[in-house]
Amino acid sequence: AGDATAQIALTQTGAGVTGTYTLAYTDASKNQSGVAGGTLAGATLALTLTPAQPLACGSVTLSGTMSATLTMSAPDRLEGSYAAFVCGGAIGGSIALQRQP
User: Fold this and answer.
1) What is the largest CA-CA distance in the chain?
2) What residues contact 89, with CB distance under 8 A and at least 6 apart?
């Protein structure tokens, strides 16, 4: 769907992380929201984002879940890579999350 602006609200309990997310694209028909979850080990966060609505690809429906592995690169910044399956196949790339005040 292209570049997006993400807002992710996370709460940490022990090594577990839970929360919600929204992705806003230039084409608003691609926007999505859902639940976030993951596990923190040291400075590394294994994060999954699962949309509220599954991804419909013709006669096939995909979960639309995106997985990311992020490492704390500064006290308020996480950087890493992501992977997901979309209608066109597997995608992946870089992701950076900046904590907002």
Assistant:
1) 44
2) none
| 3-class SS string, the chain | CCCEEEEEEEEEECCEEEEEEEEEECCHHHCEEEEEEEEEECCEEEEEEEECCCEEECCEEECCCEEEEEEEEECCEEEEEEEEEECCEEEEEEEEEECCC
Q: Say what the pLDDT of residue 1 is.
A: 63
* 33 in Cβ contact with 43 (< 8 Å): no
The span from the CA of 34 to the CA of 50, in Å, is: 6
Q: What is the tens place of the pLDDT at every residue in 9-47?
A: 999 999 999 999 998 988 898 889 999 999 999 999 999
